[in-house]
Amino acid sequence: MKQVFINGIGSITAQKTFDNTLFLGEIISYENDVLPVIDPDYKNFIPPAAARRMAKGIKMGVVASKIALDEAGLETVDAIITGTGLGCTVDSEKFVSALIDNQEAYLTPTSFIQSTHNTVGGQIALGLGCQGYNFTYVHGSISFESALMDAKLQLENGEASTLLIGGVDETGDHTIKIHKLIGHIKKERVKSSELLDSKTTGAIFGEGANFFVLSNQKKADSYAEVQALKTFNTMPLELLEAAANEFLKEENLEIKDVDVLILGNNGDVSFDMYYEALMKGAFKNTQQAYYKHLCGEFYTASSFGFWLGCKILKEQLVPEIVLLNEKQVANLGTILLYNQYRGENHSFTLLRKC
Amino acid sequence: MSQSIAITGMGIISAIGNNVAENYASLLNGSSGITKISKIDTIHRDAIMVGEIDFTNQELESILGLTPENNYSRTALLAAIAAKEAVADAKIADIKSWKTGLISSTSVGGMDMTEKYYYDYLENDTHRKYIEGHHAGDTTQKVAEQLGIEASLVTTISTACSSAANAIMFGARLIKSGKLDRVIVGGADCLSKFTINGFKTLMILSDTYSTPFDENRKGLNLGEAAAFLVLESEAVMQAENKKALAYLIGYGNANDAYHQTASSENGDGATLAMQKALAVAGIAPSDIDYVNAHGTATGNNDLSEGRALIRVFGEPRVPDFSSTKAYTGHTLAAAGGIEAVYSVLALQHNVIYPNLNFKTPMKEFNLRPQTVLKHTELNTVLSNSLGFGGNCSTLIFSKNP
Amino acid sequence: MGDLKQELKEKIIEQLNLEDISVDDIADAEPLFGEGLGLDSIDALELIVMLDKDYGIKLADPKEGKKIFESIDTMANYIAEHKTK
User: Fold this and answer.
1) C17: distance to nearest CA of chain A, Å?
2) Using CA atoms, how far apart are residues A170 and A299, in angstroms rounded to an integer?
3) ipTM score here?
4) pTM, entire model
5) Which of A152, A257, B64, B288 is the most buried (most CB within 10 A)?
6) Angle at which helices A302-315 and A143-156 cross, to 10°
7) How would you write the pLDDT of chain C (85 residues) with one tens digit per residue?
8) What is the nearest CA distance from A150 to chain B, expressed in angstroms?
9) Does C40 touch chain B (CB under 8 A)?
C-alpha cells in the first residue's frame, strides 16, 4: 500500500497564512464574533475575466490551491477533491434574496451558477485544465476529512499519484445573522486569547481555505505523512476516549506515542467538553494545542488544524500561541488531530514526520 | 483489489412511484410523472412542467412517524423513505452487524425551507428550527439516524447532477479498501423555488414534456426524487449466503474543464468517464447491452452526450440507449441514484425502457434512442450522469461479478 | 442613439462586474463575445435579463441573443427598434 505525503500547502485564513515562509510569527488578535480573513492580492492570481464572477470562497479556494500547487512544483494533478460545509454562501444568499425580493422576476444566472457546492472544485479544474476526478464533500465538520479520506484511498490504491485536496467555507451576512439568532455564534465579542475562558455558548465564526497537494512521492521538503484517518457521524461522550485508543491501536500506537494532540476547541461551553475529556483524561500528559482562536469556527476549520499539524512537523516547533498546556520538550514525530462540531461529525487524523 | 461489489437492496421514491415496484410498473407502462407543478407557488407555474411527488410534507412526516417538532426538509423526508426501503429490501436485520456506512448526496439540502422562511427567521422564532437543517450534511445525518447508523462513516457528496452516481462510486471504493463491509449509497433532491428559478435563468427549462435526444428538444423538466442502493462486500455475501440483485463492476468520474455550466461540445468529460468505467470493469465497449443516458433534453447535454457515445462506441455500434428523464424529470443530485435503480431493474427483468416523446433524430449524428419497451437479455448496463461544473460520471452494472 | 450606446456600455460594465474596464475601452463596433471584450454564454443570459428589465424586450430563445449582442451598435439598433419601456 502506497504512502501519502503532503507536498504543498496553501492557506488563507484570519491569520497571515497565505505566505508559506511564515509560521504564526505575527499573530493578529481579534475581539470579534466573526473573524475576517487576511486576503492575498487576488489580482496576482486570478484573471479579471474570471474574478469578476467569483465570491470570496471561490477566490480563496482558487488561490489557496494555486499556492499549494506552486509549492509542490506542479502544473496540474490527477484529481481535485474539495470539502465545504455550506458551499458558496454569498451567492446562495444573493440568489435567494433576489428571488424573494423581486418575486421571481428579472433573476440573473451568475449567482445561481456560482452557488452550487462544487463550484470551487469546478473552477480550480477549469483554471488548470484538469479533466481528472473531481469530487466535493459537503458533510458539516467532516467535509474536509471526507475529501482527505477519498484522496488517501486513491493514493494508497494506486488510482492516482498526485491530488489536490482542500477545505473552504465563506461567511455570508444573512447566514451569520440567523446563526446568531439560534445561538451558534456567541452573543458577545470575545478576545481571541480568551476564547476558551468565555464559558458561554456559541462559537466565534470565521472563514477560510486550506488546500494541500498530496502525493505518493516523498520529497525532501514534504511536510508530513498522513498515516490514518477515521470519521464518526455521532460519538457519545463516554465512548470518545475508547475510540481514540482504538484508533491508535489500529496503527500499532499508544497514547504515549502521540507527541502533540491538536484539538478543535471553539469556546462553546456546550460542546467543548469533548475536547476537555481528552485533555483531562487519557491525554493529560500529552502536549496539547488548539487553533480555532486564530481562524474562527467554520465547517472546514479543521483543515486549518491539518495545516497546523503539517507546519509543526516540518518546522519542528509548536508556536506558543497554540499551546493549551505547558510546553514540553519532545521529539515532534506524531500528531493526532481531533475535531467535532456541536457534538456531531467527529474525526481523528494521524500525521507523521517524514 | 478485485473485490466484487454486490447490490443487495434498493429504495426509491419519484414522480413515477413511491417504491421500487411502483417505479418499475410505471416504466413498463410508459406512464410518465410529468405534470404542472402543484405544491410550490411560483410565477413560472404555467411555463414549466415537473416530475413532482404526490405526497405532501405532512404525509411524508406521517409515513416516517415524525413528531411535529421535527425539522426535516422535504429533501430529508424523501431521502429517509428511500433509504429505509433499501435497507429493508436488503433484508438487513441488524444494521450494526457489519461495518456499515452511509454516503448520500444532494444539491438542494434544506434550501426548500430556507427559501420559505428566509426573512421570517429574522422576525420571529417560529420556524428557526429549520436553520440547522439547511446544510447538505444535515440531510444525511437524519437518514443515518433513521437507519440506526451510529459512530460510523457517514458523509455527503454534492457535485450537481452527478452527485448520487459519485456517492455510489465512493461507497464502492470504501468497500474495496476494506474500510466498510457494506454501505448505503444514493441521493435526494426535492423541488424548490431556488432550483426552478435557477434553471429558468439558464433558459434550459421546457414548457412542455421534455424530449430527450430529439432534434426539436426545448429543455429539461425538473423533478424530485430519492434513491438508495445497498452495496455489500464479498465477505458479507458469503457469510450471510446472500444473492445479489446485480453487481457494480465499473465506475469513472472525469471533468470537462470546459465551462462552468455547459458541457464541451465534443463531450470530453463524458467520453473520459465512460472510458474510465469500462477500464475499471475490464470490459470492452461492445460488452455493453444498454445505456441509460443522462439525456436531459437540453440542447447542450444531448449533443455533448451523443458525441461522447459515438467516440466511445463508434457510431454504428452505439448500444441500445434511452433516457428515462421523460418519465421522472431531471432529479438533479438524485438522478444518478434513481437511474442506478432503473439500471438494476433492467438487468433483473431484461428490459430496455423507451425514451419517451422522441420523434425526430438530431441532425448532428445518426443516433436514435430506443422508443419502445424492448424485452431482450441484458448482462451489462451503463448509466451516465453528467453535471454542472463539467462533472461527468459513469456507472456500469452487471448480472455477474 | 449616442446616449443609448453610452448607457449600454455603463450597464454592461456594471451588470457583468467588469471592474477593470471603462466606458472608453468599449468601441461601438467591437465584438462583445468571443474576441474583443471576450464575454461568454453566461454573460449573454445576463444581458437577456437586462433587455427585459430595462427595456421591456423579452427574448424567448437564448440563441436570438447571438445576433443582437454582436456589438454595442447592434444592441443599440435592436433596442431602439423594439423597446417597450
Assistant:
1) 5
2) 10
3) 0.97
4) 0.96
5) B288
6) 50
7) 889 999 999 999 999 999 888 999 999 999 999 888 888 888 999 999 999 999 999 987 888 888 899 999 999 999 999 988 7
8) 8
9) yes
